[in-house]
Amino acid sequence: MAAKKKPTKKQTDQKSSGRDDFFENFARITSDLTGSAWAFLVALGVIIIWGVSGPLFGYSDTWQLVINTGTTIITFLMVFIIQHTQNKDTRALQLKLDELIRTTEGAHNAFLDLEGLSDVELCKIQERYRELAEQSRKDLRAGKKDTHKPDLKTENFDIAR
Q1: At what angle do helices 37-53 and 61-103 cross, to 10 degrees?
Q2: Which DSSP string corresponds to 80-98?
Q3: Which one, of 140, 152, 85, lies nearest residue 114 by Cα?
Q4: Nearest Cα to 26, choosing from 71, 102, 77?
Q5: Is the whole-model pTM more than 0.85?
C-alpha cells in the first residue's frame, strides 16, 4: 500500500485560503443583509406571526420553545459574524490611522501599532494625553493658544521606550 503524501504548506494554505475566502464572503453578505431595514422588517414579521399564532397553539411550551430555540441559534451564529466584521473593520481603521501617523510630518511613529501594547501601557499614554488636554483647556481659558506641541516625555511616561 502506498503511503499518502503529506500536503505541502502551499497546498494547505491554498485550502485554508479558500475556506477563509468563503467565510469572508459569507460574513460580508450576511452582515450586509442582516443590517438592512428589510431584515428588521422580516424579523418583526416573524415575531408578529409567532405572537398572533399563540392562541392557535394554546400558548404551549412547544410554541414558546420554537421562538426561543430559533432566536438562540440565530444569536449564537450572529455573534461570530459580528465579531468577524468588527475585527476586520477595526484592523482596516487601525491601518488607516497608522498610515496617517506615518505620513504626517512631526507625528510620533512610535504611535504606530499601539494596539500591540498592554492595557497598562495604553493607560499611561492615555493619562498623559488627559494631562495635555487639561493643560490646553487651562491655556484656552487664560486666553492662550492651545496649538503648541508639548514634548511627550515625562518622568512617568516615555513613548520612546
Answers
A1: 160
A2: HHHHHHHHHHHHHHHHHHH
A3: 152
A4: 77
A5: no
